[in-house]
Structures are given as C-alpha cells and as structure tokens.
DNA sequence: AATTAGCACTCAAGACCACGGAGTGCCAGG
DNA sequence: CCTGGCACTCCGTGGTCTTGAGTGCTAATT
C-alpha cells in the first residue's frame, strides 16, 4: 500500500512544510530533495497519499500539506528523535544546575524547555502520591490550633493548619507526632492511608478526637495534594505561530490548568515520549496543536510529566529530543538533591 | 486654555473611542452626545485639543483618537471611578468567600479580576516583610539537617532545610526554637534582624555554630522572601485586544515576573489607585498598554499590589472600579483569616 | 509497466482602479 | 462666536485582470 517511495515523499513533504510553513508542490519537492524522480512522478505518488488521507490540499491548485494522520505516520515511522547538540546539553546543565529548591527546579525547567523549543512549555509539579514520607511534624500553635507539616523525599512540603480543636495539650501532640513518624517515615504516600488506619486504637481515649482531626487533614492533603499544580512558560512564542484555531482559544485552554492536567494524564506510558497530534487531543481549543510530553522522575520512577505545546506543524524530531533530554536531566537533578 | 467645552469634547472622544474602537469624528460626536453645538464647532475645538497634544488623527481624513496625554487628563480630571454593580459585588463575595488558604485566595482573586475587567490581571503575593511572625519551628531531620519553618500572620509559610551542619542534637535545637519564638513571635518581619542580633551571646558556646547557620538561613528567607512572586490570569483576553505593539512583545513582558514586580513597585501611593498610561510605563514592550493597580492588605496596612494590564484604550472608570473593589475585598478576607 | 514530458486548466494572491463615504478645513453669513 | 455650506483628502471596499505556482491528464519514452 505504502511503498518506500511514498514514504520518502511524505517525509519530504512534512519536513518542507514544517520549515517553510507553505504548502509544498511537486516541483519544489523535486528540487529540494534528491528523490531521483521527476515532479510528474511525485504528483502521482501525491495522489495516492492524498487518497489514503495522509496529505491534503488547502485548495485546488495549491501544494500539499500533511494531515494529522500524515504527521502521525511521520512521527511513528519516518523520524528519529534528534539528540540535542553539545552546546544545548551544556546549556541545560548550567541552567538547571544552579537550582536550589523544588520551586526553582520547576521554574527553570519550564523556561528552559520553552527556550529550547521556541514553543509553550508545561511542567507538572512532582506529584505527592509518588513520593515517600520523609517526616511529619506537628506544631501546636495555640490552645485550639495545630499545624501539620508533611515533608516528602522529593523536597516537597505540604502544610495545613488544623483549627477549632477541642483542646490541645503539648504532650499529646508530641505523642501523636512520634507515633505518626514511626508509622509513616519511608512509606510511599499511597501507602499512608492503610498505615494510619489503626491509629485511633493506639492513642489514649482522650486524645482520639484530636488525632482524628489531624488524620483527616493529613489524608485530605494527600488526595488533594498539588498534583494539579502546573507551570507554563513561553506563551509569547504563541504569537509567532499561526493556528487554524484562534489564538484566544489556545490561550484559554492553556490557562485552564485542569485541562492541561487531564491532557498530560491521558498521555500514555509515562516512561517514554508521548506525542498527541491535532485532533487526537480531547480538548476543543487544542485541536490545532500538538503536545509532546514525557514523564520525569527519579530513576524510572515517574513523578510527573512535562511537555511542549505547539502547532501541529512543528519540528517533531527536535521537539521530542528537547523534551526527552530535559525530562532526563530533571530526573538526575531530583535524584541528586 | 482648556475651557469646559473642550474638556467635554475630550471626554466624549475618549468614551466613544473606548467603546467603538474607531477614530471618532465631529459628526458622530454631535450625534451621540448632547453637546449642544454643531459639528463645525466641535471641529474647531478638536483643532485646539490637537494642538495641545490631547488627541491626534491616525491620518488626514480620519477621526481623532486620544493620545496618552489625553487619557491622562481624562483619568485625572474627567472621570470618576465607577462603582461595581450589586451583582458584581455579590459575585466577588461568593467567589472569594470560598477560599481556604492564601494560595487559593490569590488564585481566585486573579481570576476574578481578569473576568471582571476582561483584561489581564496580575496579583502579587503578600510580601513577607510587611507581616508579623506567628511561629518559628525547627525540626531535626537527621544528624546534620534541620528544617526551619517560619509562619506569618498573613498565613504564609516559608520553609528551608539547613544542611551540612556540624552536628545536631535534639536538645539544643529545642533550646534554640524556644529562644527564637520568645524573641520573635508578634514582631514585624522587618524587626526580626535587630531582634536576633544578640542570639549568639544567649546560647551555649557549643551551639553557636548551629545557631549561626539557622539564623543566617532565617534572615536570608526574609530578604529573598517571595516578594517577587506574581500570578496572572486572563492572558486569553489579549487576543481580543489589538495593540499597536506586537502581541508577542506584550506576552514577553508579562512573562517576566521581574518586570511586573518593578512596574507594580513604581506605582506610587500603595493605599490608592494608580494608573500608568502607555509611554508612562518604563518597560518597552508595555508602551502601548495601561496598568491600573492598587495596594491591598489588612486595614490600611498594604501588603502587596494587584492590578490589571490592558490596552491604553480601556474603560478606565470601570477598570478602576473593579480593581479598587477587589483590592478592598481581598483585604477584608485576609483580615478575617 | 513505470516514468516523464507536455499541456490545458484552476485558483489564490497581488496589482490596479474606481468610487463611496466619513471626515476635515475653511469661509461666509447668521 | 457659532454654524451651514462646500471643496478636498484619503481610507476602505469591491471589482476586474494578470500572474504564477500547482495540478491532472494524456501521450510519448524508457
């Protein structure tokens, strides 16, 4: 159905269209690539490709542009991830190396990715649920208030204030604190709920009300967590792209963190690169964009995702290379902390 | 120099131009406003206004549009801040009322402001330096690590991990913690440095190294603080505005938090509304925008600023009303926490 | 049987032009 | 001092033409 030459033509069309932003015709193809055949032959191949739905023409008597299906084939079978240049690698290292805490790592990462790809970069904060408890702290703040601080091994700190307690007595807080740490330190956050299940039976009767309040806040902070938190950068690059959809729609979609989270979540295998092209994106406003994403984390333990949003007409090999490299490097940084 | 009628004409021009987005001519003015004079007279006034630099024409046979100077006069002398409608007030209350912590207050505020004004909203996080210490906590995390948590009365929590200490012994940490709390609780953050000046002389000799490390981190966290932290929303609204400058420039400027901080800082009196129009903005990319900002805080104690960025051709009375109302309401919310 | 040259055809984009209309400036008369 | 009248300017719109890149088809070539 699709012989090698057709594939070569499709690849050439994608590459030319991505770099020129103009529909590409048979003549131009024959000139710019050494396909060894004449424009007329290329035209015949184009007809076949168009019948199969890989390319289309904006109007009669114009060149061809790839369809989403065409890009999909290109990404799956016709392209290889392009490694970054040595200079780019160095840039990543120096730029990310200076980061001191999690916030800074994330901020720098997202900017870096935006700059490398000249597109919109998104980075999801490492999710709580995939990290482990390093320490739980309880601090009495007053007669009826206690602050709970949960520290994870990914450097994340969640804190909540628990208010309107019946009464707080320093000793019982201290007891609960040591108990919780004994039970939880080193546990995955996902394992916390079962681990604390029998806490009520382990504390004196008169401390149970307080313990229950603290536990419920603790569990709540696990669920809500900030898995939803997302940072983005490079929206200025949107101005240079011309979408078929309106710029407004894209900006609106990008502002809806919920949408981005969902999209990242939909992306498959967290350990490798995922590319979602045009209509494959479930969100309306992003139907004319592609999203390249990857999971990142410590070792092969994926904590969250990061990626890039750009026009379907994007440099896939280059973008994929950048996303993969940044994801890996962030992983090593996190591990080193 | 500028009699009442000229001012009336200028006001009419600004109002019409803001609502129609088209240069406004003498005929249209006479029709839409009851100025009591003929178009010819209005034309004469326009010539005067143009000579004074308040209005200009894009090209010879077009209507007039206000200059930055014209908007400035309009804001200073020809307009009054427009109070929000009852419905809008209710919307603010219900929308902001549900917020539980500082993060959520800020996030909701910025979205609300963007929605009310249909422009880009920016909110600066309440600065640390203007709040007071509620509690200092020190938590030993291991043989050489201590975590410091600083809680302020504005609900902000700063935490740092202090690493590579010589040695940590639970008792000395406990001592330092009670000492610090005794010295600092209730103090303005700005008064913290003098208050801790003689801590070294108050701790046993063998704890001084550790105390010094903790103190330096504490002080550092005050200076850096997150005074720089800014949140924005409503960038999608940019798509509908047409700037003389390129959209890209504006987006770039908005992404540079440093720039925004500086601009907000330049705005004068924190207790009232500030309007910076077009060229008055020091940043290149925002020369075709106006910024309406106000301080917000508890009582008349301004903690940070918030505001709106839009085209110079904006509805100043309405925008100013929204900014003022939101700033005030956030203040009451913060006070109630 | 596949490839290519040749050719007629299509259509978007640009150039050109005409014109309608909104707006101006100026002058003379109220 | 205001206003009606008038000639003038110039932008924007819409029509027509031309150009050129690109196509599809057919017949000739390898």
TrEMBL record, chains A, B:
InterPro entries reported for this sequence: GAF-like_dom_sf, HrcA, HrcA_C, WH-like_DNA-bd_sf, WH_DNA-bd_sf, WHTH_transcript_rep_HrcA_IDD
Keyword annotations for this protein, in alphabetical order, are: Repressor, Stress response, Transcription, Transcription regulation
Is the Transferase keyword given for this protein? no
- Domain named Heat-inducible transcription repressor HrcA C-terminal is located at 103-320
Q: Answer yes or no on keyword Amino-acid biosynthesis.
A: no
- State one Pfam family annotation: HrcA
This molecule's function is given as:
Negative regulator of class I heat shock genes (grpE-dnaK-dnaJ and groELS operons). Prevents heat-shock induction of these operons.
Q: What NCBIfam families does the record tag this protein with?
A: hrcA
Q: Which HAMAP family match?
A: HrcA (MF_00081)
The record's comment on protein family reads:
Belongs to the HrcA family.
Could you identify this protein by its name? Heat-inducible transcription repressor HrcA
Organism of derivation: Nocardiopsis rhodophaea
Gene (name only): hrcA
């Amino acid at each position: 159905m699709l012989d090698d030459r057709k594939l070569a033509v499709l690849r050439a069309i994608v590459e030319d269209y991505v770099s020129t932003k103009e529909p590409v015709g048979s003549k131009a193809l024959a000139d710019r690539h050494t396909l060894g055949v004449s424009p007329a032959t290329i035209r015949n191949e184009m007809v076949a490709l168009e019948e199969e739905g890989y390319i289309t023409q904006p109007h009669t008597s114009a060149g061809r542009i790839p369809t989403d299906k065409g890009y999909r084939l290109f990404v799956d079978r016709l392209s290889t991830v392009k490694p970054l240049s040595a200079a780019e690698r160095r840039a990543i290292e120096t730029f990310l190396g200076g980061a001191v805490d999690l916030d800074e790592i994330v901020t720098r990462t997202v900017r870096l990715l935006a700059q490398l790809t000249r597109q919109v970069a998104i980075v999801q904060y490492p999710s709580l649920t995939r990290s482990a408890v390093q320490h739980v702290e309880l601090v009495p703040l007053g007669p009826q208030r206690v602050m709970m601080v949960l520290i994870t091994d990914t450097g994340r700190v969640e804190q909540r204030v628990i208010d309107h307690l019946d009464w707080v007595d320093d000793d019982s807080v201290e007891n609960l604190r040591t108990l919780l740490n004994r039970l939880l330190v080193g546990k995955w956050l996902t394992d916390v709920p079962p681990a604390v299940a029998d806490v009520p039976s382990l504390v004196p009767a008169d401390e149970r009300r307080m313990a229950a309040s603290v536990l419920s806040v603790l569990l709540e902070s696990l669920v809500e967590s900030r898995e939803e938190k997302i940072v983005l950068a490079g929206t200025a690059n949107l101005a240079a792209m011309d979408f078929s959809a309106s710029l407004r729609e894209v900006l609106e979609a990008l502002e809806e963190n919920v949408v981005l989270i969902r999209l990242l979540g939909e992306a498959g295998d967290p350990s490798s690169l995922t590319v979602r092209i045009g209509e494959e994106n479930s969100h309306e406003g992003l139907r004319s964009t592609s999203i390249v994403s990857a999971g990142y984390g410590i070792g092969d333990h994926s904590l969250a995702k990061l990626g890039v949003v750009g026009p379907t007409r994007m440099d896939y090999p280059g973008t994929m290379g950048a996303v993969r490299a940044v994801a890996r490097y962030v992983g090593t940084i996190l591990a080193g902390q």
